Amino acid sequence: xxxxxxxxxxxxxxxxxxxxxxxxxxxxxxxxxxxxxxxxxxxxxxxxxxxxxxxxxxxxxxxxxxxxxxxxxxxxxxxxxxxxxxxxxxxxxxxxxxxxxxxxxxxxxxxxxxxxxxxxxxxxxxxxxxxxxxxxxxxxxxxxxxxxxxxxxxxxxxxxxxxxxxxxxxxxxxxxxxxxxxxxxxxxxxxxxxxxxxxxxxxxxxxxxxxxxxxxxxxxxxxxxxxxxxxxxxxxxxxxxxxxxxxxxxxxxxxxxxxxxxxxxxxxxxxxxxxxxxxxxxxxxxxxxxxxxxxxxxxxxxxxxxxxxxxxxxxxxxxxxxxxxxxxxxxxxxxxxxxxxxxxxxxxxxxxxxxxxxxxxxxxxxxxxxxxxxx
Length: 375
What we know:
Number of helices: 10
Largest sheet: 6 strands, mixed
Shape: elongated
CATH architecture of the largest domain: 3-Layer(aba) Sandwich
CATH topology of the largest domain: Aminopeptidase
Radius of gyration: 23 Å
Distance between the termini: 18 Å
Number of domains: 2
CATH superfamily of the largest domain: Zn peptidases
Order of helices and strands: HHHEEEEEHEHEEEEHEEEHEHEHEEEH
Strand order of the largest sheet: 1-2-6-3-7-16
Strand content: 15-25%
């Protein structure tokens, strides 16, 4: 079979499943909604010889693992596919962003990030099963329910499953234009507190202004911005009333970086922070951390293989990098060959114009099908 022609002929199937997934809105924070969307996928897979395992969660959507066993005597470690079913969009967003096809673009909340990737995974595995084809290794599809908000249990789940794999393919969207994601920035979410002493604003010398101390510390932390490191104060607060010297202040920072050495140096820098006003106190905690996805030698070799397989389909793939994080960073940090951005091309992630390019969805499904059989 010729994969591009085959999946072109199945365009209606692809778009039907994609529509059903998008219509089941699945914001990360609403467990019931996420689980309802996952059931759409579970129901579709039950028609095929796919092992389905659920991992129930109390406060977030359940995790799922779909496995197509390799029936040969191959000792190859499993191929891991990373996806997520949660989105950033709240229930009811469909009223403002209805699912619809406009030319070669499909619009809707979560259509690109990443329900198109889920559609690709199902349709590629479906084709393998219906054509009685045998992959060279067991294929395991991981469906995370809390990728958009970050979750310790989800990270542990992905880490445990990825350790068993020989390689990891992540179906996050391609970089606009089609490049794969071979490097991602790491991320630290840091909460910084400053504590002073309250006093009447008419006698400021009797107090210690926590907000002023916080502002000084924020300017100090901004000095980290070298070599691609970015520091973004995303939340800030402090004080009680305009006529009271504030006793407490805080800020939450998003710090991003390219390499593990940067991660180490940032943490050392934060630990060395000292109060500008010696009578003030400062402290910080890490609210979350995501490792960088680095383009390791083993990932380079995997990229070359993918590039070669894509060329057989007449597709040209280029390596790219992005400041955003994904579950691929977790797998990559375990020194497992990992390539991200294998999902379709499109644009508008987390924006009102979110859309996937239908032609690309078909091409990337054909490519994934070939990868699952040949890697």
